[in-house]
Amino acid sequence: MNARVLDGEIITSRLDDVRAYDGVRSRRVFACILDYIVVGLLTIPFAILVFLLGIITLGLGWMLYSFLVPAVAVLYIWNTLGGREQATLGMRAMGIRLDRLDGAPIDGMTAVVHTVLFWAGNVLLTPLVLLVTLFSDRKRALHDLLLGTVVSRSDR
User: Per the UniProt record, which residue ranges are transmembrane (predicted)?
Assistant: First the structure.
């Protein structure tokens, strides 16, 4: 274990350093906006494929439009947030990443569950999701508390 001393405190991991959470809330908001844009752009080629499939199947393929955006978003999250970097493209641009408190890497299923809880929380409890970050340790949101994860700065 690499322990270091910072202002008289022993820091055993990157997640114990309070500087790793500076500006995380605002960075999360902007990362979310960027990720919505990326998912929207990624949906365009798949929408064209579904359109062509609908023509071939005499309209039956067009029913796939109802699942298109969530399917693209889940694949995007699985491959980025559940990948080696543990961050979506928006999170990388904002310099943040998702970590588990037990130190294990984020796998694809945890990333998808994290995102689904985020979406469900925003649909049902929008103000509560953001208010929790004001009072929780490490500026964790409600879905972070449920899954034992934390968003921290990747540059610290």
Answer: 29-56, 62-81, 116-136
